[in-house]
Hints:
The protein is α+β, with helices and mostly antiparallel strands. Helix content is 50%, strand content 12%. The strands form three sheets. It has a six-stranded mixed beta barrel. It has a four-stranded mixed β-sheet with strand order 2-3-1-4.
Amino acid sequence: MGWTFSREEDAPGRDHEVVLNYDLWKSRFGGDPGVIGRKILLDGEPYEIIGVLPKTFRLPKLSQLFAMDLPEERARFWKPFALRKEELSQLGDFNFACIARLKPSAGFFQAQQELNALQTNIAKRAPIHITLSAAMVPLIEQITQRVRSGLELVFGAVTLLLLLTCVNLASLLLARATARRTEMAIRSAIGASATRLLRQMLAESLTLALAGGALGIAVAYAAARVIVAVAPLDVPRLEDVRIDGHVLLFTFAISVMAGILFGLMPARSAAREDAQQAMRAGGRGSTEVRAAWRSRSFLIGAEVCLSAMCLVGAGLLVHSFVKLLSVDKGFQTSRLITADVEFPEKSYPNKEKRSAALETILNRLRELPDAESAAAIDRIPLSGEGNNNVFTGADHIVPLGERPLGDMRAVSPDYFRAFGIPLQAGRTFRDADRSHPVALLSVLAAEKLWPGKNPIGREIVLGDDEKNRIQILGVVRDVRGASLDKQPTMTVYLPYWLRSDSDMTFVLKTSVSASAASRELRAAVRQVDAELPLEHFQSMAERLNESVAQRRFQTQLVTLFAICALLLASLGIYGVVAYSVAQRTSEIGIRMTLGAGKSSIASMVLNQSLRPVMAGLAVGLMSSLAVSRELEALLFDVRPADPLALLGVVALLAAVSIAAMLIPTIRATRVNPVEALRYQ
């Protein structure tokens, strides 16, 4: 309903209009069609509602457009951008994401060339020498770039599991076809044609495959809800994941394909069987038994190969995830409670007012009986990079474009004590430092500017303002501020009174429970300003878990599929070996009559069964090494040819395979020679 913004409204002072999304319109305004023209308060200022977007409208979240983790929900309303003059300067913040729709007649490279021409003109007018170029990316790639490789990995694991299931199906159908040789021969003898026998066998295999597909859909319907519930929130369109017509059609097609493809070989074999040969007494000779064993040996090898590939992928991810969790973060997370606060621009228009409010709140938090320390920071560790700026030593002469880029973080003096970040040299901030600009550097930043020298007392220059000189008070340990899987970055810590943003995070180190600490923190903030929006109450341990949620999700899924693959492979090996032992009962009886002991019978069965297992394991490991390069982007501090993962898979598969063979082997050693000679 209504309309969207015009160009005239996209200007400071004329931008007090909003467009609501469908969910907000339904939940807060009851779906009232008369909402157009009404006014709402945002940051204490009135905004007129001019439109409501359709239910199907979706725009990418900021975290999908920027290479940073933002604690955000999906946008519920929109207002004009209304860029201010300072944001349109030649050297603005450049912290914008632009989405463009190309004309139908325009190509990707043509649009990029046009943008580059504009960038060149901007660079020419810049007060310093810079080179600008456009980086265009298709929107679908930008949205899915974080999860694409992980989802492709999961799809690969599912495909291997499907193939493994189909191999089991083929093994089952081959065994059934062998057991029904006499039945098929009788049918053929009384007039059934080869085509009719082929149709019957295919119909049976299709029925089996379709029944499995239907059962799979039933399980998937329940499993999908669980997977969506535990999946990380940054998976694109997660809320749309459901069992729909496309899934049903795909499952039906796969089931039919599996039934035909893997039922065709035993069906053709049964249809071509010589009736007289099949009805001959004894059923089959040793040559036929060996031929059938070769077919089933191939299937055992295929099962082990596919299972090994799935297990190697899971092993690499598990080893990588364990290493990621054990990496040196550079800070502590125990007993830390955090909460985000946003200072409304109308009530806190400048850093002086924000700093005064922060100081008052921190003093109240320090007075809490259970508080060990209280601090504030504009961007909590593990929340991505942000507020980057170039910096250099004031005693250096370096062109602006060649200066290193550092991560600027505004903190309170107790921040380093709360997070257990040790001081390497100098000291931290004091109240007496408010009279002049000061900063702390990380070890990386200090080494970059003054390698092998003492940076204490020296000055740095931030940005392009040579007068913006800041004295270095100390050097602190490097931390993984962006994420656990990224190396520490050069960081400049500024006191919050020098640079406090409207968005800050309070950190409280306390001995009480998280819920009690959250109540105390909320009460302290409300005593200062009851209208300050405080949200995202979390312990630092929870934030740590959220930062690795996507890796954990991928690892859990692939490991689950690998366990299923291992189970299927063990069942397949057991079935094939058990059936083979049953088929060779007469042979085993003859061997025992001629003097073979139980140990030699067991050795014969195990040796014969282990050969295809070892062959399949070797092929599976080589195949895994060939495709594991694709996993490299998902691994942390683990090589695709990780010996621990490979040896673990070899040991696990060998142990499971031997365990699957034990029961048939024990049965073989307990064969009664007299009864065996009567077999068939």
